[in-house]
């Protein structure tokens, strides 16, 4: 494993020169200079004609007469997403956001979903995602997996009761964006496979900034990822396990008859797509590896990043957890005594007796950028209103131990 050099990584983000300490990677991840330059270049060239002999990638069709540079940017984006998750470029569906892609998928699932079928959703997921399936598309029945309100985790055992022969789709998130809890994906998917022929739809958006993503290892049929949450452009993607799955979906447009990813795609800015390849290139170079394919370099780089940030995560929980007045959602109190240590470097916390707005303002006055945790249905059920709100902290690849120490000192002044 290549050693991780946080100081060198910080140099890849020109925005860090402003003197602020950014602890808000869950809401507004910093944009690497390589990504910003890639988007600017793509917008300049998107409407130019591509030369007939221009290379467009090993897995792409040869350019045709009159083909624009923008199409090359879109093809490169699909290849980059495929490298990011270990899949094939022709199995990647691009879209402007995950809610839009989930709505498109819900419409296209008509051949699979009927009145006698069921879908299983998770209340741990962001409401904006499960909204596409929450009302039972095509007359299907909706069943809900419930998180543990003490830990914010998603128990796997309940899927043995929720999934049966009528189940056609199981949708869940690999991790919670605000709590940092990680779902037992392998156990859940194994249960789904044992009890049904359902497709599994797994959102890896919160997991992907911190750990290598391998579609085969996860075992899901469809992966979902919001590239903006990785510090990329406002583009999202669905990645299918097998292109043969497109045959079982309805096309969004009646004129689309080919059984390809185009069945589900909605227009995406070619200029924004030009930033996807640079994003994945950036992630592949975080740990300085320069040998092998992009996929190989990416895995090595993310393994080094995971080890580095896991060390920071431990300090983040330990330092804040030692402050008696601090309550970390899903980690503090008797109800969280059995909480798993498998967490991302993210958390939401409250200071007892101090409104979250005051905590957030004190952090901001000390040049620490965090966010107020939104009062989602899950966080309300976990007691965020009784606590007076909460503040969310999420680390990025450029954060250091000094950042955590500074955070702890400021919170201690309130606690």
From TrEMBL:
Residues 72-407 form the Aminotransferase class V domain. Gene3D superfamilies: Aspartate Aminotransferase, domain 1, Type I PLP-dependent aspartate aminotransferase-like (Major domain). GO terms for molecular function: transaminase activity. InterPro entries: Aminotrans_V_dom (IPR000192), PyrdxlP-dep_Trfase (IPR015424), PyrdxlP-dep_Trfase_major (IPR015421), PyrdxlP-dep_Trfase_small (IPR015422). Keywords: Aminotransferase, Transferase. PANTHER family: CYSTEINE DESULFURASE, PYRIDOXAL PHOSPHATE (PLP)-DEPENDENT ASPARTATE AMINOTRANSFERASE SUPERFAMILY. It comes from the Bacteria. Coiled coil: none annotated. The keyword Transferase applies. This is Aminotransferase class V-fold PLP-dependent enzyme.
């Amino acid at each position: 494993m290549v050693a991780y050099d946080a100081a060198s990584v910080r140099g890849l983000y020109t925005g860090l020169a402003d003197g602020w300490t950014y602890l808000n990677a869950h809401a507004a991840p910093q944009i690497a200079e390589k990504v910003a330059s890639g988007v600017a270049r793509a917008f300049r060239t998107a409407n130019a004609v591509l030369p007939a002999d221009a290379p467009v990638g090993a897995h792409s069709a040869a350019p045709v007469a009159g083909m624009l540079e923008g199409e090359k940017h879109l093809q490169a984006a699909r290849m980059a997403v495929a490298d990011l998750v270990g899949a094939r470029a022709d199995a990647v569906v691009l879209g402007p956001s995950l809610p839009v892609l989930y709505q498109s998928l819900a419409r296209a699932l008509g051949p699979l979903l009927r009145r006698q079928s069921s879908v299983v959703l998770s209340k741990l997921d962001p409401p904006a995602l499960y909204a596409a399936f929450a009302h039972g598309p095509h007359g299907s029945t909706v069943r809900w997996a419930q998180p543990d309100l003490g830990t914010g985790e998603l128990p796997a055992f309940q899927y043995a009761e929720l999934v049966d022969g009528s189940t056609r789709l199981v949708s869940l998130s690999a991790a919670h964006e605000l709590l940092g809890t990680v779902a037992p994906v392998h156990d859940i998917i194994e249960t789904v496979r044992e009890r049904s022929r359902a497709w599994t739809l797994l959102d890896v958006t919160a997991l992907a900034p911190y750990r290598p993503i391998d579609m085969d290892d996860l075992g899901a049929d469809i992966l979902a990822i919001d590239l903006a949450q990785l510090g990329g452009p406002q583009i999202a993607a669905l990645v299918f396990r097998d292109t043969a799955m497109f045959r079982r979906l309805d096309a969004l447009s009646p004129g689309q008859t080919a059984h390809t990813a185009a069945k589900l795609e909605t227009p995406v800015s070619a200029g924004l797509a030009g930033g996807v390849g640079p994003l994945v290139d950036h992630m592949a170079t975080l740990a300085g590896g320069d040998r092998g394919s992009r996929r190989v370099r990416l895995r090595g780089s993310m393994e080094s990043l995971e080890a580095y940030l896991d060390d920071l995560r431990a300090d983040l929980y330990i330092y804040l957890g030692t402050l008696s007045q601090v309550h970390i959602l899903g980690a503090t109190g008797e109800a969280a005594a059995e909480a798993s240590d498998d967490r991302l470097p993210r958390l939401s916390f409250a200071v007892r007796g101090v409104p979250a707005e005051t905590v957030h303002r004190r952090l901001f006055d000390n040049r620490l950028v965090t966010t107020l945790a939104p009062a989602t249905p899950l966080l309300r059920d976990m007691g965020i209103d009784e606590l007076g709100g909460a503040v969310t902290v999420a680390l990025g690849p450029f954060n250091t131990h000094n950042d955590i120490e500074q955070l702890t000192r400021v919170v201690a002044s309130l606690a």
